From TrEMBL:
Gene3D superfamilies: P-loop containing nucleotide triphosphate hydrolases. The keyword Nucleus does not apply. Coiled coil: none annotated. This is HprK-related kinase A. GO terms for molecular function: kinase activity. InterPro entries: HprK-rel_A, P-loop_NTPase. SUPFAM superfamilies: PEP carboxykinase-like (SSF53795). The keyword Ribonucleoprotein does not apply. It comes from Sedimenticola selenatireducens.
């Protein structure tokens, strides 16, 4: 794996996307080996959706406080970051690649998980507790489709998985370590633009079933509030539609097609707001939602 990363590029299949990744940055090589060793690769030349390179920024920076540049087909969309942030930069950069190109989907900023063919979509802004709740669910046997984006087919409403490491920030890292002794977390990157960031390795179940779509059975808008009781309330469909549109990366590009897809989504299954502070109580509540969910096909 290291040899191919340093050479012509390591092919990795992540959900529906084929990526060719090149880098000689030691910290990134270690992270890729830890998080992506179980993903499908290719031995021969093929079509790639994204040719990604992370390289040093050159000049004096090569020797003093070295920095990493993210390149997509030799285009650098971001400012360089310290070497120790290279893996976080790769993950953020891949988010950008997908969100700015995969317009055959309505792409919603949301975590998506599945149990027994029943999908849960959890849209959320930073600080909502979405990724923490997503990580906890994945550690309790839920199949992870994504902690960052729901790839929704505008016609069928099927959600295409793109399972990747779950990004945890600041206090959430310790919360998940305490929640499960089996949580496989990578090293924390400190002092990033988002604070301290660490990633949770997805389950083998999630990786091996990355080609299996699911239909949403409920939409849950989570909100973490320290010390609060667990409070689940039905959300009006017009309000849910507005928030789905606000959390969609490409609704402005898809136009009416995107609006119709979002409307069909919220009309097809129940919508809830979930306030929580206890992960255990939140998980029990979500299980009950699935038991009661009525879905329109």
């Amino acid at each position: 794996m290291s040899r191919r990363l340093r050479g012509n590029g390591l092919p990795i299949k992540i959900g529906p996307f084929w990526i060719s990744l090149r880098s000689v940055i030691p910290d990134l090589l270690r992270h890729i080996a830890f998080f992506y060793a179980q993903y499908e690769t290719a031995e021969s030349e093929r079509f790639f959706d994204f040719h990604i390179t992370l390289k040093n920024s050159g000049g004096l920076r090569r020797w003093v406080k070295p920095q990493a540049n993210f390149l997509l087909d030799e285009y650098a969309p971001f400012k360089p970051l310290p070497y120790v942030h290279a893996f976080a930069m790769f993950e953020w950069g891949l988010n950008w690649c997908i969100a700015t190109t995969a317009h055959h989907y309505l792409i919603v900023h949301a975590a998506v998980l599945d149990k027994d063919g029943q999908g849960i979509i959890m849209p959320g802004v930073p600080g909502s507790g979405k990724s923490t709740l997503c990580a906890a669910m994945s550690l309790r046997g839920w199949r992870l489709l994504s902690d960052e984006m729901a790839l929704l087919d505008p016609v069928s409403r099927a959600i295409t998985p793109v399972p990747r490491p779950v990004s945890l920030k600041n206090d959430s890292i310790g919360v998940i370590r305490r929640f499960s002794a089996g949580a496989e977390l990578g090293p924390a990157a400190k002092d990033t633009a988002k604070g301290t960031v660490a990633h949770l390795r997805p389950s083998l179940l999630s990786i091996q079933n990355a080609s299996i779509t699911c239909l949403p059975h409920a939409i849950i808008f989570p909100k973490y509030e320290a010390g609060s009781d667990t409070n689940l309330v039905k959300k009006a469909k017009n309000r849910a539609l507005m928030e789905i549109q606000e959390n969609a990366f490409n609704s402005h590009i898809l136009g009416k097609e995107g609006f119709d897809a979002a409307k069909s989504l919220v009309n097809s299954c129940p919508n809830y707001s979930l306030q929580y502070s206890s992960l255990e109580e939140a998980l029990v509540t979500i299980e009950r939602i699935l038991e009661d969910a009525e879905v329109t096909t």
